[in-house]
Amino acid sequence: MFVQDYMTKDVVSVEIPSNRDDILKILKRTGISGIPVRERGKVVGVVTRKDLLRKSEETQVALLMSPKPVVVTPDTPLSDAAAVMVRHNYRRLPVVDDNGSLVGLLSVADLIAAIAQLRIKDEIRDYYLSSTFALWEETPLPLVGRIMEISDVEAVPIMDERGVVSGIISERDLIRNSHIEDSVEVSDFSNGTDDDEWSWESIRDMHTVSYGVSKVQLPERPVRTAMVKNVVTVPKNAGVSECALLMKRSRVDQLPVVNGDKRLIAMLFDRELIRVLCKGQDQ
């Protein structure tokens, strides 16, 4: 199993300099989680959904991107690529040829597709479950985004007032509901004199600068208006390849894990499931 057998060959990429707003449009339209950045034909960085949400006021792609990304070649063993992703918590690896030119992209979703074919019957409860928390469905979207940023999670289950899972919100959903907001802010550079505010000294010492701010903004709406409502769940004794196939078919990055009473007990993230490909390696 090699990278070339599972990588995506028709890769969406951008060149430096590029426009942040155009990247946001690409992420919204395609649903992909990240885009390689090239300069003079060479891969110099990757811009992700997380970068746009965490650096909401940054417009320069060179400052938005994660520079010097780890790359692999088409003949890299799939297990080695998976180990790199697990070790560094990457969701994608640019694939380059011997000249350093971009020829593909290997994502966690590609690894999930590989696992789905392997018919691994190991139960997910043995290795791959993650503890989780849930948010109320009336929680405002900006607060949801901030909580996800602090917690460093890509998705959160949403519950109704009965404590039943009613949906799930992911970074993809946040990006889909975001917009660019332009505003003017003012910085006060006055020297803080104690003179009377109407004196000539006070007027002379007042200095303000107005400047435009363009930022990625989430609307002030409840999370229930943006969450995915048709949630696919699995029991904790589900098989590894069975869950990978569900993720692939449903095009999701995570599956809530429930008990016999359909109560949420954990989360299964794709980034944890790909550990099965690293068995026997030092992660």
Automatic annotation (TrEMBL):
Pfam families: CBS. Keywords: Amino-acid biosynthesis, CBS domain, Methionine biosynthesis. Gene3D superfamilies: CBS-domain (3.10.580.10). It comes from the Archaea. Residues 7-63, 65-123, 128-184, 227-283 form the CBS domain. GO terms for biological process: methionine biosynthetic process. InterPro entries: CBS_dom, CBS_dom_sf, Diverse_CBS-Domain. PANTHER family: CBS DOMAIN-CONTAINING PROTEIN CBSX3, MITOCHONDRIAL, OS02G0818000 PROTEIN. This is CBS domain containing membrane protein. It comes from Methanofollis liminatans DSM 4140.
